[in-house]
Amino acid sequence: MSFEGKTVIVTGASNGIGRGIAKMYATKGANVVLADIDAEKGQALAEELADTATGEVLFIKSDVRVEAEVNRLMGQTCQRFGGINILINNAGIVIFKSPYELTVEEWDNVLNTNLRSVFLCSREAAKQMRQNQSGGSIVNIASTRAEMSEPDSEAYAASKGGIISITHALARSFSEDCITVNAISPGWIETGDYEKLRDIDHEQHLSNRVGKPEDIARACLYLTDEQNDFVTGANLVIDGGMTRKMIYEH
Hints:
alpha/beta; globular; Rossmann fold; single chain; 7-stranded parallel sheet
């Protein structure tokens, strides 16, 4: 798949899954806008990708919790590239803390970073995409934790469940403007040292391996390819089959 001439915004692009997504689009000819609150890492990634990218790479420091900064992100992108074709809403944080101790401020920070940002970025990007002859594509990075939980993950689970719900709502609202909106729910995606994983880590997956950021990046390419516009409002689970594996304690 080629994305030559397309402009892609990836939020939370400096680390982990976002970094892998940005790197893959950069190899496919796209102009890639890296949006992240971490200026040092974001600029470093832009410089790294510029050496191998076939399109342009631009870093824009952005706090996607803040409406004015989201508007600035979209405005600077359009000023530089003339429009927006693809948005990957990847920015997210997690706090594992007992609901007895989790503060309202911590709850709001997770929900604003993970969920409010999806609404703000999607709304402003869609205003530009609707002007394109071919519309556009939005992919929201959710999580399998929207459907299953460990203790003390209430804020994160709520935010990811909300992402799945807003995905199909936006798909309906934006359909008349030829904008597809889909979600991806990753399972265990290792963003650290993959070689340090144990056999038991891999074996608990039906795929017999833990996931990598590239697994999510390839799915983003599929969902944002213009030929796949029949796929919208969907939530694609990419977890190596972990959530389909029945587990008993013996």
